[in-house]
Amino acid sequence: MSTSFARLGVPPFICDALAERGITEPFQIQAATIADGLAGRDVCGRAPTGSGKTLAFGVPLVATTAALGKSAPRRPAALVLAPTRELAEQITTELRSFSGSVRVDAVYGGVGYGAQLNALKRGVDILVACPGRLEDLIERRDVDLREVRQVVLDEADRMADMGFMPAVKRLLDQTPSDRQTVLFSATLDGDVAKLTRDYQTDPVLSLIH
After folding, report:
1. Helix (H) or strand (E) holding 58
2. How far is CA 192 from CA 35, 126, 163, 174, 176, in A?
3. DSSP state of 202
């Protein structure tokens, strides 16, 4: 039986923005995880690229962040960690397409600091980040993670393969222990299983092939 985003509890401003893009019925991974994400549950999803996981984590992220109001400068309310600049840019573009007044910006290496610092000074509600650049910015005191309420780890297996796990753990350790943690990965064993064990609380497991 098909469902709709509204039936999953998605706010009208997001449903309308998705409908404008012709997105009216959730994919399998979205139908399986959005309601739990909106309810504040930790989610652990196994999903390949192209399965629609950006909306699966992005819709609850935007909805919850919108309800919090504006974040203070340099203190994002939500954090998405991604392994590559390209993925960080894709996630940012996707979230902005339905984010309404929620401010979404990305920080990653390979480019100058100027535009990223300006965005952080203005205030970013959802920060999409590659671990290396984010650690640099924290060391410079340009970002503080103490008010982060939600963390998403996207393509966690790739972050492990690229050697980012120590940085990911250091970053998670700087966020409040009662945050919501959502993890998506193509595989859920090895280092990813340790992340789930150490940083998630009773996560809803969703396996999409």
Report:
1. helix 53-68
2. 23, 23, 12, 19, 20
3. S
Closest CA to 150 of 110, 179, 184: 179
Picking from 78, 87, 74, 68, the residue whose alpha carbon sits closest to that of residue 116 is 74
Q: What does the pLDDT average to over 98-110?
A: 97
Instruction: Note if the pTM is more than 0.90.
Output: yes
Burial class (CB in 10 A: 0-12, 13-18, 19+), 133: buried
Residue 23 burial by Cβ neighbours in a 10 Å radius (0-12, 13-18, 19+): middle
- Distance separating alpha carbons of residues 8 and 107, to the nearest angstrom: 31
Which token pair is 82? 């991604």
